[in-house]
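Progress report, Aim 2. The chain analyzed during this reporting quarter is listed below.
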Amino acid sequence: MDVIPGAWRRTAAGAGLLSPQGEVAPTIFAEMSAAAVRFDAVNLGQGFPDEDGPAEVLEAAREAIAHGANQYPPGRGIPDLRLAISEHQQRFYGLTPDPDTEVLVTAGATEALTATLLALIDSPDDEVVVFEPYYDSYAAIVALAGARLRTVPLRRPDFQPDAEQLASVVSDRTRIILVNDPHNPTGAVFSPEVQAEIVRLANRHDAIIVTDEVYEHLAYAGPHVPIATLPGAAERTLTISSGGKTFSATGWKIGWVHGPAELITAVLTVKQFLTYVNGSAFQPAIALGLRLPDAYFDEARTALLHKHELLAEALHAAGFGVHSPQGGYFTVADATALGGADAAAFCRALPERIGVAAIPITAFVAPEHHADYAGLVRFAACKRVEVLEEAARRLKTLG
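Predicted structure tokens for the chain:
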């Protein structure tokens, strides 16, 4: 008996979800986390915080459970969370999505992305343009949707795309331009010129812009600017974010997507057959979080920037070349001078060698492009200061 139907087996294999033997292939993230446990290593691989978010947000979830918020919430999300999302977008960016028709609560940003692509891909000839390196689920989602993945490289030192190369990839076959900004894994924030070019190309080729903005409150050089705020963008943009990174609650999986009502309705038609609903008690807690004073968001950003600086200092001292991030959880470092020209092999040896786990950037790159990023390693800065200090002590032993 073929447990996985043939079409799904081919899709999964094309997305790198199956081993050549037809087994589920473990991700590099699972592999490195397992190695961190095996060798008692400091895990700077997976991007999750190791401390809780604001006490009032945690207490709101406890209160919700105590007061009976334990059954299915409404399919679009509880009204107060949808209202809080709309208020948040207006407060920070001047956007005014209708909470009743233009906002949808999802099981994290990943479900929002999955439901969006499954809803909007019409044909096997449709293309989805992403910026490479890209968050690893993107290729899998595109494959599951049955579309073609087209990539635009982000090159060192600033990891900004080349405008001419971007224009050469976007065409009338482009159904979706998927933008992750601030960017995982590079930490780049796209320049105003790049954002404007994305909007211009989307209008020229009648493409939909889908944005992954989960690090929106962790932009270091200046306030985050959603593409939906640009002229000519709002009517063709679906904006996705979540509370996990902002409130250090990645396990709650409360995300959202907002945009034109007809597009949100299309996404809802798919989302209702994925998780249906989720996180009943966590939704009011995230609503409270989104209404916290500006000081909370400022302090969270400042605290993480300080952690990046501690990590960068340790990496420099160990002999890495460091690319300072403009946003997000991660610092990218070049291990070539330390014998890490093959970053994947370097990362696999690192937990046993010095007791630190990290992720090679090639985990976010198509195999045919590995050579362009071969020496680059991603380190997560979203850990307690004492954990980063212990990692720094261990990194010094690389010399």
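Residues 1-10 have pLDDT under 50 and may be disordered. The radius of gyration is 21 Å. These observations will guide the mutagenesis work planned for the next reporting period.
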